[in-house]
Design goal:
The chain is about 45% helix and about 15% strand. It is of the alpha+beta class. It has one domain: Glutaredoxin, CATH 3.40.30.10. The protein has a 4-stranded mixed beta sheet, sandwiched between helices. Helix 1 crosses helix 3 (about 65-75).
């Protein structure tokens, strides 16, 4: 999916993107920005923590239509904050949860549970 400035995706389009990404990928990170250019510190932190243990993470740039992505993700997780990571279809958390899992030595196992 390419980003085109000032183009908002409809809620229905975003719902489809979110549902497909969670269903089709073992590990998916919904973040602000891209892997090459994270656009917030929390997204950068989450990406860095994941990259320590997995290289095959799918990322979705939520800045394409941030309010719609917040609504779609809240439907799955109960959280509207971004970033959010899902492993094998299960919501894991955001960057703070990933950091806690790393501190406890549980992040690698969590990311490779799929």
């Amino acid at each position: 999916m390419t980003f085109q400035p000032d183009q908002q995706l409809s809620q229905e389009e975003v719902d489809e993107v979110v549902d497909a990404a969670i269903e089709d990928h073992e590990v998916v990170l919904f973040m602000k920005g891209t892997q090459l250019m994270p656009q917030c510190g929390f997204s950068r932190r989450a990406l860095g923590l994941i990259a320590q243990h997995r290289t095959d993470v799918e990322t979705v740039d939520t800045l394409q239509s941030l309010p719609a992505f917040r609504a779609a993700l809240e439907r799955h997780s109960g959280w509207e904050t971004i970033p959010q990571i899902y492993v094998d279809g299960e919501f894991i958390g955001g960057s703070d949860i990933l950091a806690e899992l790393e501190e406890r030595g549980e992040l690698e196992a969590t990311l490779n549970a799929a």
